[in-house]
Amino acid sequence: MRRLILIPTLVVVALFAIAAGVFYWIYNSYTFYSTDDAQVTGQILSVSSPQAGTLSAVDVKLGDTVTAGQAIASISTVAANGEKTTLTITSPIAGTIIQENGIQGQSVTPGLALAQVTDLNNLYVTAYVDENQIANVKQNQDVDVNVDAFSGTTYKGHIKQIVQATAGSFSLLPSSDMTSGNYTKVGQRVPVIISVDGFGGNDIVPGMSTKVTIHLH
């Protein structure tokens, strides 16, 4: 008798658990959208030589903090009349030197990158959202950001911009060969720019992997 009662009870419990799981999945999908196809990004600018010459001085090193207009390097050039002049190369923005390629005394050509600088105080997150979900994503929606390098810490942010093109539009290689006459539909992703309220003093740098959870409703 006890066994006859126990079996239906277990069935009811199992069905209730399944129903609860389905309800949670539907509620979670309606309320949130999560993706780990995201990373920390920032404006990285190259400081390059405008003309040919000799790199006579390198005024910065990797990791240095610079101000806008601060000298990065000096280049010695020879004018058409044979007169030697010195050209000072400056940083276009205030930021941190994240790459320094110049070696004093080397010959440089126009466009040769001497250094790269970025503003580590003005970082954001770029997340790639499936196109079938992008209609639910709006500007100013709240976002939870988790950076892989600092697991267990959640940063708060919001949707700043939805890029008006898919990620595939910026690819150098096409996703399909239109000349073959065969078309394969490929799910596209749309870049979404997320502004982070603050990283709590952690050493966050461009390129770090993140996971984002967008509050849809």
pLDDT < 50 stretches: none
Identify the strand order in the major beta sheet. 1-10-13-12-11-14
According to DSSP, the number of beta strands is 14
Mean pLDDT: 86
Rg over C-alpha atoms, rounded to the nearest angstrom: 27 Å
Distance between the termini: 49 Å
Multimer state? single chain
Helix content estimate:
10-25%
CATH class of the largest domain: Mainly Beta
Domain p-hydroxybenzoic acid efflux pump subunit AaeA-like beta-barrel: 123-215
Organism: Tengunoibacter tsumagoiensis
Membrane topology: Single-pass membrane protein
Family: Belongs to the membrane fusion protein (MFP) (TC 8.A.1) family.
Secondary-structure map:
Layout: H1 2-31, E1 32-41, E2 44-48, E3 53-58, E4 65-66, E5 71-78, E6 84-90, E7 95-100, E8 107-108, E9 113-118, E10 124-130, E11 142-147, E12 154-162, E13 189-196, E14 209-215
Antiparallel strand pairs: 1-10, 1-14, 2-9, 3-5, 3-8, 4-7, 5-6, 7-9, 10-13, 11-12, 11-14, 12-13
Family: Belongs to the membrane fusion protein (MFP) (TC 8.A.1) family.
Domain YhbJ barrel-sandwich hybrid: 44-119
Domain p-hydroxybenzoic acid efflux pump subunit AaeA-like beta-barrel: 123-215
